[in-house]
Amino acid sequence: MEHRRLGRSGLYVSEITYGNWLTHGELVDREAAVACVGAALDAGITTFDTADVYAQGAAERVLGEALRAVRRESVEIATKVCLPVGDGANDRGLSRKHVMESCHASLRRLGTDYVDVYQAHRFDEATPLDETLVAFDDLVRQGKVRYLGVSEWTAAQIGSALALADQLGLRSRIVSNQPQYNMLWRVIEPEVLPLCRREGIGQFVFQPLAQGVLTGKYRPGEQVPAGSRAASGGRAPRFIRRVLGDSLLARVQRLRPVAEEVGTSMAQLAIAWTLQQEGVSSAIIGASRPEQVTENAGAAGLRLEASVLARIDEVLGDLIDLDPSKTAQMMAVKPEWARSSG
């Protein structure tokens, strides 16, 4: 497992990050979650990503328990704040009140004195940006947060935050962005990635497997496999089934010969693709079984030839989404290739 600098910061993260969205506290039980974290550590993964909203805090709690016996300085823990964690008016957003309270709650659940990366899970239009930035900066000054990041912010929002932080004379600066990014969903390429490269902001990319679609396990005209996330309970099927369309699945199957020629699984091919894109610091993988962690971690260090990258683009063609207006809309936008079953 190789490690990369997070943007231009001094922090190194493993090029594969283990994340627990839709798994810990929801899709898998505690025993399986702990086993997956153990497999991640065995594979050399040192970076772990979670959020206060995942399973309404349970994901942070399980992750903290799974890492309890690990030397704290040997791992990097990232979590997030913004999305609703309760029914109260202040149980969401990026107000000073919620940011402070959510950070303290996350630290308690994770069983740690600090988090390495604290991320604004979405942009909050209702809160003055200076209020949010000062609250984040105060957490860094207090030693409860080491580095700051955002998730699914547009280029304009990131740029405004950077400029305002400079105007306010804040010591802390955004060093990471966590966008959805994979072979199919490339909406950050026209605007977000160029800005982040200029400003030294590294990418923690999530869904490099497009919710499992790019593994090839979902086939056109067939029922979803038993034991897959799309066949499971909880919220996972709701997120996955919205991107299952026969036209897409048929095209993905055409990537299988490409993976075979490279000598990798389709999952490893997809993860390696994201890691090869300039500006990407780490790809976040999720898993419900330890063997999935081990397989996906096998993408670390894999380099794809330019001819392979070109073939991938040729196969996926018009299914590739590059519309920058869809940044931060991944929960609401249904891709064109997912709207048809033919």
Automatic annotation (TrEMBL):
Q: Name one Pfam family in it.
A: Aldo_ket_red
Where are the annotated coiled coils located?
none
- Cite the NADP-dependent oxidoreductase domain residue spans from the record: 15-315
Could you say which residues form the signal peptide?
none
Keywords for this entry?
NADP, Oxidoreductase
Name the source's superkingdom: Bacteria
InterPro entries registered for this protein in UniProt: K_chnl_volt-dep_bsu_KCNAB-rel (IPR005399), NAD(P)_OxRdtase_dom_sf (IPR036812), NADP_OxRdtase_dom (IPR023210)
**Belongs to which family?**
Belongs to the shaker potassium channel beta subunit family.
What PANTHER family does the entry give? Answer: HYPERKINETIC, ISOFORM M
Q: What's the protein called, per UniProt?
A: Aldo/keto reductase
Give the organism the record lists. Micromonospora musae
